[in-house]
Amino acid sequence: MLELKDIQAAAARLTGQVLDTPFVESRTISQLIGCQVFLKFENLQYTASFKERGACNKLAQLTAEERARGVIAMSAGNHAQGVAYHAQRLGLRAVIVMPRFTPGVKVERTRGFGAEVVLHGDTLEESRTHARELAAQQGLVFVHPYDDEAIVAGQGTVALEMLREQPDLDTLVVAIGGGGLIAGMATAAKAIRPDIEIIGVQTERFPAMVNAIKGTHLPQGTSTIAEGIAVGTPGVITEAIVRQKVDDLLLVDEGDIEQAIVMLLEIEKTLVEGAGAAGLAALIKHPQRFAGKRVGLVLCGGNIDPMLLASIIERGMVRAGRLARIQVNARDVPGNLARITATVADAGANIDEVHHQRAFTLLAAQNVAIELVLQTRGREHIAQVIERLQQAGFETALL
User: Fold this and answer.
1) Residue 357: what are its φ and ψ, rounded to 5°?
2) Which of the residues 57, 128, 156, 343 could staple to 7 if both were Cys, CB 3.0 to 4.6 A apart?
3) Domain spanning 4-49+149-315, CATH class
4) E strands along 86-160, which residues?
5) Under CATH, which number does the domain 51-143 receive?
């Protein structure tokens, strides 16, 4: 089984090849959650993910004969970019098989590193099967995204850096897909600090490691905003390490992850993808589990589709009460809409959208239902706007 010396050797190979990313406390998030939260900014790596650590460690150990053959990988994006970038840096041919649902930003970035991208299959398993077939046909070296000791050792260097900066951490919270990151980090951290607590996080839609370790039979979903950890089957190597060295596994839902993405964007001014926000999502969902502790989180990736990000931000504004939809019922006469918008403006809210509904309403025929989407300062402000409209004689309700 993997040992600390393997991870230390990987750290030596990675020196100067990957970024030793910042690991700092977020005072504001600490206050909000109720524990001391330290963030490891792996989203600042050149490929915006920790994945290039394992990829670089693996490729650096290939023989001359293997380098001449080239490499192939299967990935939803971050492992792909890590392999493609370091293969390009080392002058190796790289073929990357990606599922067809992979966000366009990840596909184009992978191509940008000089890799040959093959889009095949609707799941990671289908992509993996195709990649194995291509590897056999073309004599390419298969670089597994997580079930490989060289990959796991490379990912484990994250924990070495975190404990070097903050040696008295109580807990590490790490997202789990196939398990490469948490297996490497747990191996390093438990060797350095046997008393440290290691907590893994999966989404409720992809609980493969939770099912494997806890013996549960939770259903598997088909999609998640944390596509980077949407893995159907954990690795053999990684599962064995998780079983031995990880203290607990937690599940988070889509709303928790969305909230964490928006919180990091607003508070830390840093952009993470769904998988990168999973650790913070666990703290948001289970604050009592971490109360008063010194907790290290890995922001493991920052590659998020811009359209998905826009949707998450908008939904976050709705949850925070900064974007609201109200219905105002009024007589359908000239000037009433102007009175309504003027009242909203006087109350300090901004109108995003206006919809007149005449046909699909139970109101009297001479009346109209007007739906307004408003930008507000929060829930208290929404209540003030509604009150002002009601004072002006308009029947108003929050939708």
Assistant:
1) -125, 105
2) 156
3) alpha beta
4) 94-98, 116-119, 141-143
5) 3.40.50.1100
